[in-house]
Amino acid sequence: MSIPNAVTAPQSTPTTDVPLGIDPSNPHQLSASLYNEDLAPTAQKGRTWNAYSIFTLWANDVHSLGNYAFAIGLFALGMSGWQILGALGIGAILLFALLTLSGFMGEKTGVPFPVMSRIAFGITGAQLPALLRGAVAIAWFGIQTFLASQVLSVMVIALAPGAVSLRETSFLGLDVLGWICFVSLWILQLVIVSYGMEMIRKYEAFAGPVILVTFLALAVWMLFESGFNIALDTGTPRSGLDMWIGVFGAAALWVSIYGTFVLNFCDFTRGAISKQAIVRGNFFGIPLNMLFFGAIVVVLTGTQFSINGIIIDSPSDVVQAIPNTALLLLASGALLVLTIAVNLMANFVAPTYALNNLFPKHLNFRRAALISGVIGLVILPWNLYNSPEIINYFLGGLGALLGPLFGIIMADYWLVRRARINVVDLYRTSPNGTYYFTRGVNYRAVAALAISSIVALLLAFLPALHVVGPFAWFLGSGSGALVYLLLAKRQHDLADIDGEAIAVVAKH
Predict the structure, then answer these.
(1) With contact defined as beta carbons under 8 Å apart, do 359 and 371 qualify?
(2) Which of 73, 328, 391, 480 is 20 to 30 A from residue 448's alpha carbon, by CA?
(3) 141, 139, 137: which is closest to 149 by C-alpha?
């Protein structure tokens, strides 16, 4: 397999894992078990993710229906509008810092998350964090597709009331209309992803403004409906110590919602044109956009509460109350566009790269995306969604491990290696390679993950520790970083060698 579009060196042919001599066809000694066109670093020239591209990622993801349900829940728990904005503001500042540091890693190296993981865990050990991240994402991909199909079902019935009869027959836990809507959205997402990261970038760029305008319009409509009366609390707002615990706890939970994204943000920023683009995109997309999100939450929730004393569960409740069928369909369509955008970026990219990294000799981005989609279908995600045990214990348990992973990877990259990376060695199996460690595994990182995972799982599932539950991601991430720094080998080859010699022009 030759390196397509190599930019600064003769093309190389990755070989098997047998140590190489001097081979003119493979001067960089790349291994076919570690390198293919989709896992290769992206060349600096030809990158297309600018500040607007990164901003629209957040314009979509921040306004997900799950995030609205979380923030509206804070209002229901007695937090006032100002307290909710304060919690989201604190969380946004923390996320801006974390995601900028994570994004810089992708911009510098040009590699996706599974390859980035090789730096800390070794060329073989990196399969562990990649598969953990991918497993969480693939389950949520199926679940989010199912939730989107529910919105589509409502739209179909609004247009063709007779379609309600298709709900009378079910198969494998889902009615016929549900199957039709689910498979339709499943195919649509597979088609988008089959064209790679560039198509995802274009879809996010299209969806972002649609979402922002839709939610702004919903807020304005509710203001008129309520006579511009906004209830800023439910009548018994929190105060004193209880208020501060609630604010900081909510801020910590807001950060933990993005515990998956801070891990594999490099999957997107590997295509960033510069660090400045990441900073600008993150600034407008995180602190400013999250405060805009908070304002929408306060308006939608406060106006509805002022009208009839009812706290909505989601913006979907507002949409369903729109009296005009055409406007209802437009708003529902926008929510559908939003859910697909969030699903693509948060839950489809990670497992696609994880599978590609597992079988680089046989898979490319498109094939891996197809396999990810098939798995997301055969797990019958509606049954997962309806099972609290699976959501809480299986997905919750896997999710709890992502904090320690983040702490270990960030501590290794920024503190141990001081951002000095030999990118070419990430694709070599030579025992003398920087990231070979012991038979391809850095057992110090694995040990740190095992130890810190105990902390994370106890925090997630032990009732006696529920008081610190909101801070579980920070405690898990911090323990992962601390344990790794205590165990990490201090003498490393800190050669800083970019990957331009083996890079490809980004098309995925």
Answers:
(1) no
(2) 391
(3) 141
**Cα–Cα nearest to 190, from 200, 180, 198, 181:** 200
Q: How many CB atoms lie within 10 A of CB 454?
A: 12
3-state secondary structure of 339: helix
Read off the tokens for 269. Answer: 């920023």
Q: CA 51, CA 440: separation in Å to the nearest integer?
A: 36
- The answer for residues whose C-beta is within 8 angstroms of residue 486's C-beta and 6 or more apart is none
348 contacts 170 by C-beta, under 8 angstroms: no
pLDDT in tens, the chain (508 residues): 444 434 344 345 565 554 445 577 778 889 999 999 999 999 999 899 999 999 999 999 999 888 888 899 898 888 999 999 999 999 999 999 999 999 999 999 999 999 999 999 999 999 999 999 888 889 889 988 998 898 898 889 888 999 999 999 989 999 999 999 999 999 999 999 888 888 999 999 999 999 999 999 999 999 999 999 999 888 877 888 888 988 999 999 899 888 888 999 999 999 999 999 999 999 999 999 999 999 999 999 999 999 988 888 878 888 877 888 888 888 889 989 998 999 898 888 999 999 999 999 999 999 999 999 999 999 999 988 887 777 666 667 777 889 999 999 999 999 999 999 999 999 999 999 999 999 999 999 999 999 999 988 888 788 888 778 788 899 999 999 999 999 998 777 789 999 999 999 876 5
CA distance 230 to 207: 29
As a whole number of angstroms, the distance between CA 67 and CA 59 comes to 12
Is 2.40.110.10 the CATH classification of the domain at 51-385? Answer: no
Answer whether 49's CB lies under 8 Å from 273's CB. yes
Q: For residue 111, how many C-alpha atoms fall within 13 Å in the half-sphere facing its CB? A: 28
d(CA 122, CA 335): 41
The answer to whether residues 180 and 209 touch, using CB atoms and an 8 Å cutoff, is: no
Which amino acid is it at 34? L
Domain borders along the chain are 51-385
| Full-model pTM | 0.90
In 3-state terms, what secondary structure has residue 238? coil
**Residue 248, CA atoms < 13 Å, CB-side half-sphere:** 10
- Residue by residue, DSSP assigns 29-79 as --BTTT--TTTSPBPSTT--B-HHHHHHHHHHHTT-HHHHHHHHHHHHTT-
- In this structure, are residues 434 and 412 in contact, taking their beta carbons and an 8 Å threshold? no
